[in-house]
């Protein structure tokens, strides 16, 4: 694939034009809409005109979604300008996901056609009194002569009001349970007046213009064809669809990080202290490099996570939970570090760059909460500790799938959504592949083809990963109450996953890559130092000056700072 | 593949595993009571599929736990799967 053909690059070129002072992506315009808590209509219309909706529809159903890494790149491109528009538009992919995973070909093609035309689809999972506890949902669907009758309310639903269609999780067995729910794709336009009403927009801390509202069905009759998947299959279907959406959603965090990093670097270049530019002061370089490392780690994890949907779909229950837990948390840290550097400018709404920094910081907060919070995702990993320990000890892994996942130039197969599973009995190949990757890295270092210092850091990661698995093995089963230590351990496992992703991505690409980030394994060194400082904070790891060297690259970067910039990738940005 | 266990042996093995999960005695776990009533979270119950795969030496669809939520039902379903391969 020639890089010029990538949709994300075409979208970036378009949005550059639309950032002009009278365009819908002008920072002043975005700030004004945020102040007024108004939806970014013109921005979303521009995204429709570009045809972004077609990228939410898998190619087998007539759309242009061929590669999940490209969907990540597209959303990141929008999110680096305005998270409100990115989330407001992107919701449609989430709304369609159940149909892509469990719908009939006829349902998927029909929905794909509507989405490609710009129809908005929302996703009604949560309810006012039940939050993330899907099994407690009360909205019911009861069979009628020729379909189903929906009654009840969904609340805190993105685009519940603006969407033409909504996928709804409904209780179909009054007794509930994991087989007591089903998914319905409801076309609001086909319901008679009075069959539903939308709930008022809730006011929010961030993404203030977004349509965060709800919908109440008052004995709404829908046809039999509205059922997606099997009756009683709703929880299973939603948990599988979430594996796609959680993986892709971290694009929002990457875009927020791009935006905040650019604002901070530009500020630090223009701001003078003691007759020197802030950006030239050592005390600014170190945190800039540290923050940029968080972005590199997030990029590595989201790249591996989104490629794994194609190459390791049976492990997606884990890779999606790890990705969604790790990336927004890493970017929250990045934003806090950059806010320190920005000082008052991170806080003021009118003085610098139309207050965009404080908007990014507020808007980003939702990413660690929606579509499964960090705690929910860590719990999903904790549930699988026994399988992870077993598979790691046995050295099990899907060798071919892992190679495709971590080799940026490897062609990605079409994702086989029928292979998604609720748990991964084979564990997580990315982490289980680490011991072998460390041998390969050490061999390269011994031949002088990789820095010995980096190989040494990687060996430390190997030892830390062994120790984390020993602690996981010692955890009692957590079928009822999950102890706080288990969440701490899940966070450490995420760090192992991130480190393993970095080592294997580097091994898969170092020979071909050019550019300052790949030179002397600079990015890998920074990421490993950072990961090890999380895993073993009491020890000193490597040379902290790596963050200063990394900051030089950040400051000189001509466009968005990214480890993928110098990497020729197949089907990925 | 290991030999197919008897229904009693399989049922006893399941009671013992589930008792460990919910931190009770195996004798407290009745074969005809839905496991959710012992506090076994339905998503966590899927983990049992991993244990079963190891024990029986075969791969299973984890949602078997959802379609057969009691030990008696699960035992019958497992025996059926094993004798049909």
Automatic annotation (TrEMBL), chain A:
- The Acyl-CoA oxidase/dehydrogenase middle domain, residue ranges: 124-219
Q: Name one GO molecular function term.
A: acyl-CoA dehydrogenase activity
* Residues annotated as signal peptide: none
Q: Using the record's annotation, list all stretches that form the Acyl-CoA dehydrogenase/oxidase C-terminal domain.
A: 232-382
GO CC term, one of those recorded = plasma membrane
Alphabetical list of Gene3D superfamilies matching this protein: Acyl-CoA dehydrogenase/oxidase, N-terminal domain (1.10.540.10), Butyryl-CoA Dehydrogenase, subunit A, domain 2 (2.40.110.10), Butyryl-CoA Dehydrogenase, subunit A, domain 3 (1.20.140.10)
The record ties this protein, via InterPro entries, to: Acyl-CoA_Oxase/DH_mid-dom (IPR006091), Acyl-CoA_Oxase/DH_mid-dom_sf (IPR046373), AcylCo_DH-like_C (IPR036250), AcylCo_DH/oxidase_C (IPR009075), AcylCoA_DH/ox_N_sf (IPR037069), AcylCoA_DH/oxidase_NM_dom_sf (IPR009100)
Q: Which cofactor does it need?
A: FAD
> What Pfam families does this protein's entry cite?
Acyl-CoA_dh_1 (PF00441), Acyl-CoA_dh_M (PF02770)
Q: What does the UniProt keyword field contain?
A: FAD, Flavoprotein, Oxidoreductase
Q: Which family does it belong to?
A: Belongs to the acyl-CoA dehydrogenase family.
The protein's matches in PANTHER family, at most eight in alphabetical order, are given as: ACYL-COA DEHYDROGENASE, ACYL-COA DEHYDROGENASE FADE4-RELATED
The protein's name: Acyl-CoA dehydrogenase
What species is given as this protein's source?
Corallococcus sicarius
TrEMBL record, chain B:
InterPro entries referenced in this protein's UniProt entry, alphabetically: ACP-like_sf, PKS_PP-bd, PP-bd_ACP
The GO terms describing molecular function are:
phosphopantetheine binding
SMART domains registered for this protein in UniProt? PKS_PP (SM00823), PKS_PP_betabranch (SM01294)
Per UniProt, residues of the Carrier domain are: 5-82
Give UniProt keywords alphabetically: Phosphopantetheine, Phosphoprotein
Q: Superkingdom, according to UniProt?
A: Bacteria
According to UniProt, the name of this protein is Acyl carrier protein
Record organism: Corallococcus sicarius
């Amino acid at each position: 694939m020639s890089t010029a053909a990538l949709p994300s690059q075409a979208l970036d070129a378009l949005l550059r034009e639309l950032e002009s002072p009278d365009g819908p992506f002008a920072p002043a315009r975005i700030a004004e809409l945020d102040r007024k808590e108004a939806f970014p209509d013109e921005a979303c219309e521009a995204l429709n005109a570009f045809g972004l909706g077609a990228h939410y529809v898998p190619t087998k159903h007539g759309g242009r979604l061929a590669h999940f890494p490209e969907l990540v790149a597209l959303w990141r491109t929008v999110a680096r300008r305005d998270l409100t528009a990115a989330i407001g538009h992107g919701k449609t992919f989430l709304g369609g996901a159940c149909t892509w995973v469990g719908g009939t070909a006829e349902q998927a093609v029909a929905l794909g056609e509507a989405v490609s035309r710009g129809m908005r689809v929302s996703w009604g999972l949560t309810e006012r009194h039940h939050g993330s506890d899907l099994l407690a949902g009360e909205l019911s669907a009861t069979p009628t002569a020729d379909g189903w009758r929906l009654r009840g309310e969904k609340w805190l639903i993105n685009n519940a009001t603006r969407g033409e269609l909504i996928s709804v999780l409904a209780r179909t067995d009054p007794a509930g349970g994991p087989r007591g729910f089903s998914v319905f794709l409801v076309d609001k336009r086909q319901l008679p007046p009075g069959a539903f009403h939308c709930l008022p927009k809730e006011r929010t801390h961030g993404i203030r213009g977004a349509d965060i509202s709800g919908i109440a069905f008052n004995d709404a009759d829908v046809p039999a064809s509205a059922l997606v998947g099997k009756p009683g299959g709703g929880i299973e279907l939603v948990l599988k669809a979430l594996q796609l959406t959680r993986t892709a959603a971290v694009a929002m965090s990457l875009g927020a990080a791009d935006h905040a990093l650019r604002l901070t670097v530009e500020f630090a270049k223009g701001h003078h202290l003691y007759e020197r530019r802030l950006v030239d002061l050592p005390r600014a370089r170190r945190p800039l490099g540290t923050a940029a490392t968080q972005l590199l780690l997030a990029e590595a994890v989201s790249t591996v996570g989104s490629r794994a949907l194609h190459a390791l779909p049976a492990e997606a229950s884990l890779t999606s939970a790890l990705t969604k837990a790790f990336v927004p948390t890493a970017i929250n840290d990045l934003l806090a570090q950059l806010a320190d550097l920005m000082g008052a400018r991170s806080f003021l709404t009118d003085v610098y760059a139309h207050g965009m920094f404080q908007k990014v910081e507020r808007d980003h907060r939702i990413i660690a909460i929606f579509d499964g919070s960090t705690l929910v995702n860590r719990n999903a990993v904790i549930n699988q500790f026994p399988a992870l320990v077993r598979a790691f000890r046995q050295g099990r892994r899907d060798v071919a799938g892992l190679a495709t996942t971590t080799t940026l130039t490897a062609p990605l197969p079409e994702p086989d959504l029928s292979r998604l599973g609720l748990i991964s009995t084979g564990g997580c190949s990315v982490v289980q592949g680490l011991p072998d990757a460390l041998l390969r890295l050490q061999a390269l270092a011994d031949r002088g083809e990789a820095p010995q210092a980096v190989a040494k850091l990687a060996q430390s990661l190997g030892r830390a990963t062994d120790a984390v698995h020993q602690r996981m093995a010692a955890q009692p089963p957590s079928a009822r109450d999950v102890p706080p230590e288990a969440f701490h351990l899940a966070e450490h496992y995420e760090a192992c996953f991130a480190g393993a992703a970095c080592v294997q991505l580097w091994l898969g690409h170092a020979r071909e890559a050019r550019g300052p980030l790949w030179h002397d394994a600079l990015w890998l060194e920074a990421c490993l130092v950072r990961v090890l400082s999380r895993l073993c904070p009491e020890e000193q790891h490597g040379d902290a000056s790596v963050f200063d060297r990394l900051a030089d690259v950040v400051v000189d970067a001509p466009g968005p700072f990214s480890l993928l910039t110098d990497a020729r990738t197949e089907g990925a940005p | 593949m290991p030999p197919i266990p008897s229904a009693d042996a399989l049922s006893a093995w399941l009671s013992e595993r589930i008792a460990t999960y919910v931190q009770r005695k195996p004798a407290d776990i009745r074969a005809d009571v839905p496991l959710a009533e012992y506090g076994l979270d339905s998503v966590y119950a899927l983990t049992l599929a991993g244990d079963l795969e190891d024990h029986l030496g075969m791969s299973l669809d984890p949602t078997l736990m959802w379609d057969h939520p009691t030990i008696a039902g699960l035992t019958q379903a497992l025996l059926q799967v094993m004798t049909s391969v």
